[in-house]
Amino acid sequence: NEGDDRHLGLVEVSGIRNVQVFDPDTNAFEQTGHMKYQRWYPSGILMNDGKMMVFSGVQKLIKSTQLSSVRRAEVWDPATEAFTEMYTGPMSENSLPTQPRLFLAPNGKIFYGGAGQSWIPFGQAADEALWAVQQFFDPQTQQWEVIGVNPLGVHDTAYSAILPMDPPYDKMDIL
Question: Average per-residue pLDDT in the chain?
Fold first, then answer.
């Protein structure tokens, strides 16, 4: 059993791999493909092509398997109802806080600005100081690109929203 830590003398709280999709026609959730990694408090972002990318999440609450969040993104394809790991090498991996605030930017990349749920009991990461680094994830190359550092550091549980964009929709402001 994944996440079975009875040998520790306690019950381990683990993320799950199960994913359900809501069907408005039946007003019910239906099981779809499973993610490769267990994730507790991940973030999902809908892409322009209808696919869903999933980032971060903690595999286990007490006994972390990576000393951080899940470092690899996965993408769900509604046509196949299957997940694919987004990995091409070390630049594809990234430690992010749980529930990272992510946005699909006009350039087609995923923007992470240094905000998320950066503190949960026993869910901290060895490298969480790096969570203040602003980055883009390029779905085409499946790699992260550092673009700067959030001047105020990582923002714990910060609210973020995209402000209305003006034509030609090539500039995005985030509140």
Answer: 87
Q: Say if strands 20-23 and 143-149 run parallel, antiparallel, or are unpaired.
A: unpaired
- Residue 131: name the closest of 44, 45, 54, 69 by CA: 69
> What one-letter code names the amino acid at 48?
N
Report DSSP letters for 35-82, one per residue. PSS-BBS-EEEE-TTS-EEEE--BSBSSS-SSSSS---EEEEETTTTE
- What residues pair up with 82 in beta bridges, in sequence order? 77
Percentage of the chain beyond pLDDT 90 is 62
Helix (H) or strand (E) holding 108: none
Structure tokens at 11: 């019950």
Q: Which residues pair with 84 in a beta bridge?
A: 75
Q: What is the rounded distance in angstroms from the CA atom of residue 45 to the CA atom of residue 48? A: 10
pTM above 0.90, yes or no: no
Within 13 Å, how many C-alpha atoms sit on residue 32's CB side? 18
